[in-house]
Amino acid sequence: MKRNFITTTIILCLLYTGTYAQEKDTVVALPEIRVSSPTVITDKVAKSFLKAFPGAESLRWYKYDKDYLAKFILNDMNHNALFRQNGYIKYDISYGYEKHLPDEIKTLLKKAYDNYDIFRAINVQSEGRDVWIVKLEGMKKYATVRIEEGEIDEFERYDKTAASN
Questions:
Q1: pTM of this structure
Q2: Residue 109 maps to which CATH number?
Q3: For a tag on the chain, would you pick the N or C end, based on fewer CB atoms within 10 A?
Q4: Is the residue at 27 inside a domain?
Q5: What pLDDT band is residue 19 in, cutting at 50, 70 and 90?
């Protein structure tokens, strides 16, 4: 169940940041998302947010079903964090670039993809897991990899010629 949640979250992240190529006449049905306009939050959620994300800027709150979605900027990264009514953080997704990656992940990627440039980095933290999704660009190919606990899993690769058609 946890892996399915992380996988679904990762897929939504990739859809948020865009894809390299889409085939013509392809229709993708996405699940319904119920996010309402900015909202007032509970004290428990407010305390939990302030403890977890001190220094957050440009904070906006939204009601998401029974939960609360916080959108904000912290350390030059856009964040989306989902909180339960009791203040429990379900997940935090942050969107950044190469400069936001931890040094050990940069080193790991440079060894495995030495002829590629890192141009997007997404961090998903949920239920004690810390997963990075990184988009890479090589001379002839694009690649998207998932890094968790020092393991790299490439799950997307496109030829540049196919992406431009």
A1: 0.74
A2: 3.10.450.360
A3: N
A4: no
A5: very low
